[in-house]
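Weekly puzzle thread! Below is a chain. First person to post its structure in C-alpha cell form gets bragging rights.
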Amino acid sequence: MMEGLSANDLISLEVDGEARQMTINDLAETISESSLFVTNFSSVWAIFCTTQVFLVHIGLLMLEVGSINNKNMGSAIIKSVGITSISVICYFLIGFSFSFGPNGDNFIGWGDFALTSGATATSEAKFFYNAGLVSLVPIIAAGAMGERTEPQSYFILSCITSLFVTPTNMYWVWSAKGWASHSSQGLLGTGALDLSGASVIHITSGILAAVGAFFVGPRTGRFEGSRRDQRMPKQNVSFSALGALFFWVGFSCLNMGGVLHGVGVRSESLGRIAVNTTLTAASSVLSVLAVILYKERSLEPYSVVNGMCTGLVASSAGSGTIAPWGALLTGGLCGPVYYGLSSILCAMKIDDVVDAMPVHFGGGVIGMVTAGLFTVSDYYKATIEDRGDVTPCGALFVCNGLGWRLFVANICFSLVSAAWSLLAGFAIFAPLQVMGLLRVDKLTEDAGFDFIVANNAEMPSKKLKD
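Winning reply:
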C-alpha cells in the first residue's frame, strides 16, 4: 500500500486515452483478475496448440504410409498409435518430472511424479503440450526403420526416450534451472534459443532414426543390383502429400505453442511465428525443387514433400525471434542440406524409409544455426525474455557484444544434444541387435506385417518349421 493512502482512496488513471477514477482496493482486484486471466489463457492456449500438434502425428503417419509397401500399411497404423500411447503414459509417470520437476539441478528435474504434487491447471496444460512433443521423437525414429523391424523394438524405444532421453533434453533448455536455459543464463550468459524443439525434438529424433536404421540394416533389395539406390515399392504419393499438409498445419500451432517456453502468449509473437513458419516452408519447397531439377533433371514428389517438411522443422528454433527475410533464408538452406544428407545416407547404404534423418536432423541443425544468426533483439524481448540492454541477438547484429554468444550457445547445445542422442541410440539399438530382437526374419519381411496382423498368424518362419 502506498504511504498516506487507504484502500478506499480514489486515484486517477488514464486507460485507452480516457481518464478514470477507482479506489486502491478496486485497482488491486483488477490487477489480480488480469493476472488470473493471463494464467488461464496460457493454459487454454497450451491445450489448443496440443490438439493441433496431434495433426503432426497424423501427418507423420500418412507420410510413412505413403512411403511403404501396402502390405505393411495396417501395422504402421498400429505402430503409430501404440508408440503415442506408451510415450504419453511414460512421460506422465516419470518423464514430466525429469523435464520440469521443481527440485532439479542443472542436469535433470525431480519431483511431482505423475502430477502428484498438487496438480494445477497450468501444470496439467504444460504436461499435455510437452507430452505431444515427447511422443514425436520415437514416432519419427521408428518411421526410418519401417517394414523390417520387430514391433517390440519400437515400444522399447518409446519407453526409454519418453522416460529419460527427451525429458532431460527438455530440462536443459526449457526449465528454469537447466544449464542451457535462457532463464538460468548459464551457457555463455545467454542460454540457447530453441523455441519449440529444433534440437530437443528434431535433432534428437533424426540421430535416433539414423542409428536405428544403421543397426537394423536396409530392407531386402534396397541396395541390391546395379543401381546404388534401388527404389522400393511405395503405397501412394497422395498419402505422403496429404500427410505433409497435415504436418504444415499442425506445425504452425506447434511453433505458436512454443511461446509458453518464453514470456507467454502475446499476439505480436503469434503473428510473427505464423508468418515465419509459412515463409520458411514455402522457400524450402522452392529450394528443394531447384536442387532436384539441377541434380536429377526431373522431379521426384517424395523428395519435394520431404523438403517442405525440412523447412517446417527448421522454423521451430527461431520462428518467434527472426525477421521474415531470415525465415526466407532459413528455408533456402533446407533444399541443399536435405538433398545432401539423403545422398550421404544412400552412399553409406543406410535405409531411412521416410528420410527422417535428413528432414529432422538437417532441419533442426539449420534452425539452430539460423536462430543464432538472425535473431532480432526486440523480437527476443517479445517472445523469450526482456533483459533490457543485455537482451541477446543474432551474430549478424550488434547488441552489446552478445550476438556471437547466442550463436555459439546454440551450436554448443546442438552438439551436446546430438551427442546425447547418439549415445542413447547406441545404448538402445546395439543390445537389441545382439539379442536378436531388432530385425524380423526375411520370410516375415517378404510376407508383410499385415499378413500376421490380419490373420492372427505366427511369424511365417515359425509356420514353416511346424
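Puzzle host: Confirmed. Bonus trivia for everyone else. The chain has a mean pLDDT of 86.
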